[in-house]
Amino acid sequence: MNCTLIVFVKNPVRGKVKTRVAATVGDEKAVEVYIELLKHTKRVIYEWFLVDEAAQKKKVVIYYGDFINPQDSWSGLGFLKKMQPNVPDLGARMKAAFEEELNENAERVVIVGSDCLALRAHHLSQAFSELQQHDIVLGPADDGGYYLLGMKQLHRFLFENKSWSQPSLLAETLADAQAHSTSFWVGETLSDVDTWEDYLRESARLPSS
């Protein structure tokens, strides 16, 4: 099976990332937090990428929201780099990314962001595994959204008429899945890091190195 993981990221530019964190501790600290999130996400994805690599064909595509940096920390890992379409709506950007990867013969596609310190490689492995039996997989976030979405074919309704970044997003998504008679699997609920309080809570849960 051809498995493609889409990762939505930004470059760690002062004043452009983690603005809700910056509102509490300033832009410089917000950049440091986002760099830590990027490093964590990269470690998790690389771990997933290497596990059972011979058993299935895996592809990781980093989709940038601002500009592609050819010499950043995602370089040299064998991952592709692309730009998200220049549209303000998150749903439209996600839909375009799914459509592009599915059109390139991916049989299972999963998307994640770079905001979740609780994400682990097994969450990715399980999502791809569950796509063998379900049309859609979702990783719910405890703020009412989701940190992971996966599918085997493009379901446009998942990206239309949704309250992006609102606590009703997951409920709206599941209701639409039921209305369209698509089977779905919902994974473990995790927490995204959107505020300084989120970061303090989630970083305290990380295992000591």
From TrEMBL:
Taxonomic superkingdom: Bacteria
Pfam families reported for this sequence: DUF2064
Entry-linked InterPro entries: Nucleotide-diphossugar_trans, Trfase_1_rSAM/seldom-assoc
PANTHER family: GLYCOSYLTRANSFERASE, SLL1095 PROTEIN
Name the record gives this protein: Glycosyltransferase
